TrEMBL record, chain A:
This is Ion-translocating oxidoreductase complex subunit G. Keywords: Cell inner membrane, Cell membrane, Electron transport, Flavoprotein, FMN, Membrane, Phosphoprotein, Translocase, Transmembrane, Transmembrane helix, Transport. The gene is rnfG. GO terms for cellular component: plasma membrane. Pfam families: FMN_bind (PF04205).
Automatic annotation (TrEMBL), chain B:
Coiled coil: none annotated. The complex is composed of six subunits: RnfA, RnfB, RnfC, RnfD, RnfE and RnfG. The lineage of its organism: Bacteria, Pseudomonadati, Pseudomonadota, Betaproteobacteria, Nitrosomonadales. It comes from Sulfurisoma sediminicola. Its main location: membrane. This is Ion-translocating oxidoreductase complex subunit E. PANTHER family: ELECTRON TRANSPORT COMPLEX PROTEIN RNFE, ION-TRANSLOCATING OXIDOREDUCTASE COMPLEX SUBUNIT E. InterPro entries: NqrDE/RnfAE, RnfE. It is found in: Cell inner membrane; Endomembrane system. Pfam families: Rnf-Nqr. The chain crosses the membrane at residues 38-63, 69-87, 94-115, 127-148, 155-174, 180-199.
């Protein structure tokens, strides 16, 4: 960079020419260390301050975001309990594609089971993992699902996320609404290319297949364990008894 | 005044961080898949560059030469972290789009390069202006790169704009049944387009130089004749 000469070059040169006494070397070292320490403490304090200031807002908006996502897959008028409070924790479940504990929320109306809302993942997307949130009704039907996180190719495989889907009238992901576990058992919960009933878009079958297969597995697993999941005491841990 | 113009010209063209100095390519190539992504990251970069140049320049009297680099990095990283947290809290919608790109700014060496080359030696106002201008130079390059890749790759412009302005929507430039051209979206496309842009810049500079030489030759010829 040519704008200005380095002003300190001379300083450094002269410092190197005059041999420093041992005590002044020590003095300079300590001084430099103290300056670095002061800078570190000042900027760490700044970050800590901003963190303290923003943390409550972040927690609130994380909760809001969760509520909004749940609203997208499960209309709020279909249940009357406090959904976020009626939750149980599952250990990592392979059928859901999860390697971390899953929180499952239980929607009830007049105390009767309505639907389960939970997260699942497809591990075989075109660019790795695709995170999903699903609502499955008590009788084993998909209420709706959404993609919450994915790295599929922009403009190609990302139509699995309705926000990126060019077809706004009939987003791809809505095909799953109301399909039941019987579709999975009948072998039809697959993309058309694999002999199922789910449309895929040309050129990006892998993303669609990953979501389709993962949600099919999840719906079947949830249906098989539905009664037990609804009966779990609040906040309790579930132990998988049989594989 | 001429100093300001000089700074602006350096940032936008002469020493353009990307086309001239080939800096910050990591985030440039990764993010320029669409106009919206590219410009969004660029705007955040402008802000961080302006702020870090301002702060470093204001504190430059207290920064020993020997440990300037760790202190610069400390300041830049702290600033990016603060921007990240503040945006997450108060500009949530924008953060949802930009959030994953913000930490990338720390590793964008354009910021450190300007702090080291300019802000450490110049007054605060000029330094902030230099940082912003370098940032603007980054934005137009990454924006253009994003536009070309998006247009060739999926035939649209401004896809994803609805995440920032809910009422707006993408513009379909090529016919709707355009099959798309995957290579443009994938990293190799970024290298191709960037290479063409650098070539274009060099060509323009070359022509300008030729003109200057021709003029000089004419002038000296006229002087000899006169």
């Amino acid at each position: 960079m040519s704008e200005t000469e380095s002003p300190s070059a001379e300083k450094v040169a002269s410092a190197m020419m005059a041999p420093l006494s041992e005590s002044s070397v020590a003095r300079i070292s300590v001084r430099t260390a103290v300056i670095l320490l002061v800078f570190t403490m000042a900027f760490t304090a700044l970050m800590a301050g901003v963190y303290q200031l923003t943390q409550p807002i972040l927690e609130k908006s994380a909760l809001d975001a969760k509520r909004r996502t749940i609203t997208e897959v499960l209309p709020p008028d279909t249940y009357d309990n406090d959904l976020l409070a009626d939750a149980a924790t599952l250990p990592p479940v392979k059928a859901l594609g999860r390697d971390a504990p899953t929180t499952i929320y239980r929607a009830r109306k007049d105390g009767k089971p309505v639907a389960l809302v939970f997260e699942a993942a497809a591990l075989d997307g075109y660019s790795g993992r695709i995170d999903l949130i699903l609502a499955v009704s008590a009788d084993g039907r998909m209420v709706a699902q959404r993609v919450t996180l994915h790295k599929e190719t922009p403009g190609l495989g990302d139509y699995i996320d309705p926000k990126k889907d060019k077809n706004k009238q009939q987003p791809w992901i809505k095909q799953f609404d109301n399909l039941g576990f019987d579709t999975v058992l009948g072998g039809k919960w697959r993309v058309k290319k694999d002999g199922g009933i789910i449309d895929q878009r040309a050129g990006a079958t892998i993303s669609a297949r990953a979501v389709t297969n993962a949600s099919g597995r999840a719906v079947l697993w949830i249906h098989d364990h539905s009664a037990r999941l609804f009966d779990l005491p609040n906040g309790s841990q579930w132990k998988e008894t049989s594989p | 005044m001429s100093q300001l113009r000089n700074i602006a010209a350096n940032g936008l063209w002469n020493q353009n961080a990307v086309l001239g100095q080939m800096l910050g390519l990591c985030s440039l190539l990764a993010i320029s898949t669409s106009v919206v992504n590219a410009v969004s990251l660029g705007l955040a970069t402008i802000f961080v560059m302006g702020m870090s140049s301002l702060i470093v320049s204001s504190l430059r009297a207290f920064i020993p030469y020997e440990i300037r680099i760790p202190i610069f990095i400390l300041i830049i990283a702290a600033l990016v972290t603060v921007v990240d947290m503040a945006m997450n809290a108060w500009l949530r919608d924008l953060y949802l789009v930009l959030g994953i790109f913000i930490p990338l700014i720390v590793v964008n060496c354009i910021v450190l390069a300007r702090v080291e080359a300019f802000a450490a030696k110049n007054p605060a106002g000029l330094s902030a202006f230099d940082g912003v201008m370098m940032g603007v130079g980054f934005v137009w390059v990454i924006g253009l790169l994003g536009a070309v890749r998006e247009l060739i790759g999926q035939g649209t412009l401004f896809s994803g704009i609805e995440m920032i302005i809910p009422s707006a929507s993408a513009i379909q430039i090529l016919p709707a049944d355009y099959p798309g051209f995957l290579v443009a979206i994938l990293p190799p496309g970024a290298f191709f387009v960037l290479g063409l842009m650098v070539a274009g810049r060099n060509w323009l500079d070359y022509r300008a130089n030729q003109r200057i030489h021709a003029q000089r030759a004419q002038q000296s010829a006229a002087a000899v004749a006169g």
